[in-house]
Request: fold
Amino acid sequence: MVRVKICCITSQEEAEAARRHGADALGLVSWMPSGVGPISDREIRDLAAANPGISRFLLTCKTDPLEIRSQVLEAGTDTVQLVDAMTVDRLSRLRRELPGVSIVQVVHVKGPSAIEQAREVEGHVDYLLLDSGNPDAATRTLGGTGRVHDWETSRQIVEAVSCPVFLAGGLGPDNVSEAIARVRPYGVDVCSRLRPEGQLDEGLLATFMGAVRSAPV
Reply:
């Protein structure tokens, strides 16, 4: 079964809706230079504490291992998602600083070079997550864009690496089944397209989860 992470959770009501519909993970977004769903460190800590028994991802744009360690320990999450590029040395240091915490490195799929980026870091993380941000833009986007990237490149990454891969970027009820069939990811990650009015739409969430369950795997 393809795992599902519901990202950009902003309240306990949203967390409960995600859990009720069978999500495997919640995404809790800390400060970002742009994008959907950032909440305060205190809100992240409270939501993490209120939702045991499900994986809780802290999304951070920090790149210093000691700063990330401090943020994760304060948040109390079991997983950290690194939305900005990290060097192998920094990933190795972070692994030492956070034993027992799963590390997810985001690779923004802007072209074929993403394949080599994924290969370079795969041995130093627990998961990769393929997204559609643009870290080089004047206003950096590190997720939550609602944009689909090239799934053919994503499929090549899934085939090239040995660690599990989440697929993100513009997924919704209308295209997630095709994305799963074409990319064959370990999991999918959804945010903006389930939030047409800003808040998590439970009807869209239910339709999305049904599409994931019916996707060919």
